[in-house]
């Protein structure tokens, strides 16, 4: 058994609504607002697509997800040879880490970001440098100062999970211009479809300028397919060819591929989700508690507080299950009535 695994623990999901009701004596409905899911669900076309392929469950999926790969190629205008699919971005991050990292290698990322960068690096016996946040976001200058000859991967999350903050196109361009070309910079854009900021990076354009800029995207968030597990990386063809060796042969299920195809085709529905989310997100920043909120370009809000557990419990008593962190609480943006309840709690809570 790998000794370094002793540093880690298995993912611990939060208590179920039933367990929380018993523990806190809560009556009435509880809303799960802890995992940044799209509560509106996927396009109605997704259900139709799944139904049409239910008689194919006895067959393995086509290896490499060729149908959705071709569709993403056309959607993003990139060569399909530069795209690799995984069972969610968790598997994509695992495949990259396994292919690239060996004992003593180094990754550089931020503190308080998506935990799988750290987790998979430790599994591969790599060293991890987590640069402190700056104003709630990635400190790109601080990350640059840690990049050296031992660095094999740089992980950026934009917008960042769990803080919701983002860095701009110009900031990313300057950063990439100073990273050695042989070091892959992985830019995780899991929440990009929720973004409305005009200065958010055009990472696809930057890939044309920087061959080491690699891009992660998913169908789990705005597309509403978290339960189907499908995400992908857009990278240099040479890297994709190596990482593809690590990919399990039938990693993306048949129904997942067809669901993603249907979701991708319905861009009008995706636009409506972005608009609803932006409208509800703005309500939090129009509230009297907005000074304690990180700026967000996602479908969640990070509330800074010295009393995170007390805030978590206050929200829970109003029927809202959120996610507690050491320095705050992350709230998934829900339906209007749920958001109104949470805003009322924030306005009346001594943060």
Automatic annotation (TrEMBL):
Which PANTHER family does the record match to this protein? HISTIDINOL-PHOSPHATE AMINOTRANSFERASE (PTHR43643:SF3), HISTIDINOL-PHOSPHATE AMINOTRANSFERASE 2 (PTHR43643)
Q: Which UniProt keywords apply?
A: Amino-acid biosynthesis, Aminotransferase, Histidine biosynthesis, Pyridoxal phosphate, Transferase
Q: Please state what the protein is called.
A: Histidinol-phosphate aminotransferase
Subunit structure, briefly? Homodimer.
The record's listing under NCBIfam families reads: hisC
**Pathway field:** Amino-acid biosynthesis; L-histidine biosynthesis; L-histidine from 5-phospho-alpha-D-ribose 1-diphosphate: step 7/9
Recorded GO terms, molecular function? Answer: histidinol-phosphate transaminase activity; pyridoxal phosphate binding
Q: Pfam families annotated for this entry? A: Aminotran_1_2
Superkingdom of the source? Bacteria
Q: Which is a GO BP term held by this UniProt record?
A: L-histidine biosynthetic process
UniProt organism field = Staphylococcus ureilyticus
Which residues are reported to carry the modification N6-(pyridoxal phosphate)lysine? 221
CDD domains listed in its UniProt record: AAT_like (cd00609)
**Catalysis performed (reactions):** L-histidinol phosphate + 2-oxoglutarate = 3-(imidazol-4-yl)-2-oxopropyl phosphate + L-glutamate
């Amino acid at each position: 058994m790998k000794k370094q695994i002793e540093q880690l623990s298995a993912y611990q999901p939060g208590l179920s609504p039933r367990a929380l009701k018993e523990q806190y004596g809560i009556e009435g409905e509880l809303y799960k607002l802890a995992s940044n899911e799209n509560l509106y669900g996927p396009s109605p076309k997704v259900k139709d697509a799944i139904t049409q392929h239910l008689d194919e469950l006895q067959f393995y999926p086509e290896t490499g997800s060729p149908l959705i790969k071709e569709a993403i190629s056309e959607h993003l205008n990139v060569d399909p040879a530069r795209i690799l699919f995984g069972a969610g971005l968790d598997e994509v991050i695992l495949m990259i880490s396994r292919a690239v990292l060996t004992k003593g290698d180094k990754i550089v990322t931020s503190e308080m970001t998506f935990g799988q960068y750290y987790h998979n690096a430790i599994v591969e016996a790599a060293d991890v440098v987590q640069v402190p946040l700056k104003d709630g976001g990635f400190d790109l200058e601080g990350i640059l100062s840690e990049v050296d000859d031992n660095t094999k991967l740089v992980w950026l999350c934009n917008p960042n999970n769990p803080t919701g903050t983002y860095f701009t196109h110009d900031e990313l361009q300057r950063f990439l211009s100073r990273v050695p070309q042989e070091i892959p910079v992985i830019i995780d854009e899991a929440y990009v479809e929720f973004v409305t900021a005009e200065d958010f990076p055009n990472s696809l354009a930057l890939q044309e300028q920087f061959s080491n800029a690699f891009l992660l995207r998913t169908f789990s968030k705005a597309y509403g397919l978290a339960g189907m597990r499908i995400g992908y990386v857009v990278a240099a063809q040479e890297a994709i060819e190596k990482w593809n060796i690590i990919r399990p042969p039938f990693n993306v299920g048949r129904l997942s591929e067809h669901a993603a195809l249907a979701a991708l085709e319905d861009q009008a529905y995706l636009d409506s989700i972005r608009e609803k989310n932006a409208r509800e997100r703005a309500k939090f920043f129009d509230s009297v508690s907005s000074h304690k909120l990180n700026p967000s370009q996602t479908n969640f809000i990070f509330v800074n507080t010295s009393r995170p557990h007390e805030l978590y419990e206050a929200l829970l008593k109003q029927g809202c299950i959120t996610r507690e962190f050491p320095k705050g609480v992350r709230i998934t943006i829900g339906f209007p009535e749920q958001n109104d309840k949470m805003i009322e709690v924030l306005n009346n809570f001594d943060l």
